[in-house]
Amino acid sequence: MKTLSQADQDRIAQAVAQAEKTTAGEIHCVLAPEVGGDREDAMAWGAAAALLLPPIALFLGLRLDHPFPGWPLAQWQAAHGALADLTMRTAVSNYITLQALVFIITALVVSIPPIRRLITPRPLKAARVKRAAVAHFLAQGMHLTRNRTGVLIFAALAEHRVEVIADEGIHAAAPTAVWDEVVSDLVAGLKSGRIADGFVAAITRTGAVLAAHVPPRPGDANELPDGLTILPR
Question: How far apart are CA 219 and CA 169, in angstroms?
Answer without folding.
Answer: 18
